[in-house]
């Protein structure tokens, strides 16, 4: 064998699935290959174009987009494209464009099918890529059998099974009961002024408030209805609807859009589809009276996360589901605190910040929370009550498994247990005088989400924050400067830059050098454009319509965030399965060549958009 052919053979032996073939087969392959050189920007394949070769990338890289222009994959050294054509009678399915000057080996279609027919391991690898389940590193399975994932993908609007049944507020109980019987429904909306919702009446109300109390059927329906019923929006997920029902112990939810009821969903709509372990865990927490008992439920979170990832969950779905459990524990502890110390002397709202606020928690989470109190708060009269409440809840969360925040950014700390007027002063100062400490605080407190209490207390404050930050170029420039301190672990020649020395030597910090930079980018673009969402995915989706970032840039960041986040979660799941404590430090060697290539691509996206952000808003002198 010539030196040139041996060099090609050695290259194939280093890449999957060619490394699974016998040596004599691999040694014979170079003679069957044709080498082609493509310039950067060349479109190699288009949908339905004839493709009679499997393309093996020797050097360079490609980008794959579907016929609608949606990014599917970026491939690099040792990876193959044109796979789908091998299973579609030589017809390409997508657009393939060269990202760099590239050298590609072409394996004839006949030789490909000969190898696939003779070597099952070779066929299995490419069949998965060529069939309906092909997904790039930035895509996941479309069809998932896990119950929780089904309800995370179904919108509430899809569950509305029939037209809304309602009755005017002036009706009697008898009239309402007759209508329910005639329409064969288990609840009625009570309306006034045409379509304004005044309340809800259910079959349970007829049993418990009419029959059991021997009421007259001639009484007005207002005597037994539940006023101002809890509702949900049509674009919310079915999973959220079931959690809402569990949280409030109700079986019917009006579906509201623009202040009007458009339908009704019931527990039967949901449970007819499936039951959910996470919802059951939430239900158990809400019945418990001791933090130590809740800890036993929360201890199952790693296993839940493992099952979710193995079932094909996106990191977005997994984060949402896992965060519902910390929300449930927090709410239950606050209920127990109010039972222990009495009703609150003034209204308050308990807020979650950080990853819990963004609904992006993983198997490894500490506390970030605060208390916002009504301005009627008097520290002399009410201070002891709220100190006791905050201590009880934060101590309870620590017992449950959500450890104390190392930076003490918790309601336990007096500084983060203040009335609205003080919080307004905080945010005014942070925005007007963005010192380094203020910028650090912004990374937590600009991601606030109400968990329990009087939520309206936060609404006015939130509007003030969004309005004051929007378009404030000096503040945004400082935020950019702070965000750029989080460097992606990618060197000049696209090589990984790993942690050096210590316990995590030669690893990648997937949180601080992967997830956090994207969270920072999303937050800045959201604040710059007045977006009130705190979830990173929602911020980036909203940012697509604003000028501070291109639609393609926001889309690339969404892909990068999902790939980095899911890679981090899979790393944690492997640790859980091995009986180790999950962390954020990943050894690149644990990844396949395919995963390493896409991880580098994801880091490159962040790096490019950090540069674009600096150009858009400027970099402060901090």
TrEMBL record:
SUPFAM superfamilies: cAMP-binding domain-like, CBS-domain pair. This is Cyclic nucleotide-binding protein. Coiled coil: none annotated. Keywords: CBS domain, Repeat. The lineage of its organism: Bacteria, Pseudomonadati, Pseudomonadota, Alphaproteobacteria, Rhodospirillales. InterPro entries: CBS_dom, CBS_dom_sf, CBS_domain-containing, cNMP-bd_dom, cNMP-bd_dom_sf, DUF294_put_nucleoTrafse_sb-bd, GlnD_Uridyltrans_N, RmlC-like_jellyroll. Residues 160-219, 225-282 form the CBS domain. It comes from Thalassospira xiamenensis. Residues 17-118 form the Cyclic nucleotide-binding domain. SMART domains: CBS, cNMP. The keyword Ribosomal protein does not apply. It holds the Pfam family DUF294_C.
């Amino acid at each position: 064998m010539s030196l040139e052919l041996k060099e090609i053979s050695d290259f194939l032996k280093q890449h999957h699935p060619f490394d699974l073939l016998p040596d004599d087969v691999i040694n014979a392959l170079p003679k069957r290959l044709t080498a082609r050189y493509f310039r950067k920007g060349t479109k190699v394949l288009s949908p339905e174009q004839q493709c009679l070769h499997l393309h093996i990338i020797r050097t360079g890289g490609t980008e794959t987009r579907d016929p609608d222009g949606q990014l599917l994959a970026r491939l690099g050294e040792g990876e193959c494209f044109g796979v789908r054509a091998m299973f579609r009678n030589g017809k390409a399915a997508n657009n393939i464009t060269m990202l760099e000057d590239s050298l590609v080996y072409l394996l004839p279609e006949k030789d490909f099918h000969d190898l696939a027919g003779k070597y099952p391991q070779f066929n299995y690898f490419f069949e998965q890529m060529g069939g309906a389940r092909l997904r790039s590193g930035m895509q996941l399975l479309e069809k998932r059998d896990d119950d929780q994932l089904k309800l995370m993908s179904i919108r509430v609007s899809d569950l509305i099974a029939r037209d809304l049944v309602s009755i005017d507020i002036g009706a009697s109980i008898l009239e309402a009961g007759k209508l329910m019987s005639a329409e064969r429904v288990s609840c009625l909306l009570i309306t006034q002024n045409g379509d304004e919702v005044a309340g809800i009446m259910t079959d349970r109300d007829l049993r418990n408030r009419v029959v059991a109390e021997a009421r007259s059927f001639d009484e007005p329906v207002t005597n037994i209805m539940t006023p101002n019923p809890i509702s949900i929006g049509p674009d919310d997920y079915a999973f959220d609807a079931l959690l809402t029902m569990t949280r409030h112990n109700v079986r019917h939810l009006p579906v509201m859009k623009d202040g009007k009821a458009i339908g009704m969903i019931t527990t039967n709509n949901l449970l007819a589809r499936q039951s959910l372990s996470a919802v059951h865990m939430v239900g158990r927490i809400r019945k418990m009276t001791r933090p130590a008992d809740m800890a036993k439920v929360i201890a199952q979170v790693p296993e839940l996360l493992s099952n979710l990832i193995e079932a094909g969950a996106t990191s977005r779905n997994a984060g949402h589901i896992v965060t519902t459990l910390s929300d449930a524990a927090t709410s239950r502890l606050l209920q127990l605190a109010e039972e222990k110390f009495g009703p609150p002397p003034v209204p308050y709202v308990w807020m979650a910040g950080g990853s819990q606020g963004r609904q992006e928690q993983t198997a490894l989470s500490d506390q970030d929370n605060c208390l916002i109190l009504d301005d009627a708060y008097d520290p002399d009269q009410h201070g002891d009550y709220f100190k006791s409440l905050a201590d009880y809840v934060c101590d309870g969360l620590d017992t449950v498994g959500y450890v104390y925040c190392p930076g003490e950014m918790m309601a336990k700390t007096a500084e983060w247990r203040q009335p609205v007027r003080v919080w307004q002063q905080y945010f005014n100062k942070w925005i007007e005088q963005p010192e380094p400490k203020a910028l650090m605080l912004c990374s937590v407190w600009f991601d606030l989400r109400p968990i329990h209490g009087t939520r309206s207390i936060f609404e006015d404050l939130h509007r003030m924050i969004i309005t004051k930050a929007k378009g404030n170029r000096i503040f945004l420039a400082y935020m950019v400067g702070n965000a750029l301190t989080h460097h992606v672990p990618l060197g000049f020649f696209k090589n990984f830059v790993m942690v050096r020395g210590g316990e995590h030597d030669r690893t990648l910090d997937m949180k601080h050098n992967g997830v956090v930079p994207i969270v920072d980018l999303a937050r800045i673009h959201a604040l710059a454009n007045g977006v009130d969402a705190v979830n990173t995915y929602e911020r980036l989706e909203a940012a697509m319509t604003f000028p501070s970032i291109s639609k393609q840039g926001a889309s690339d960041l969404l892909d990068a965030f999902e790939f980095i986040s899911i890679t981090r979660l899979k790393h944690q799941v492997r640790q859980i399965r091995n009986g180790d404590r999950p962390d954020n430090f990943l050894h690149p060697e644990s990844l396949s060549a395919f995963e390493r290539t896409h991880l580098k691509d994801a880091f490159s996206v962040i790096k490019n958009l950090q540069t674009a952000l600096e150009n858009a808003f400027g970099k402060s002198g901090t």
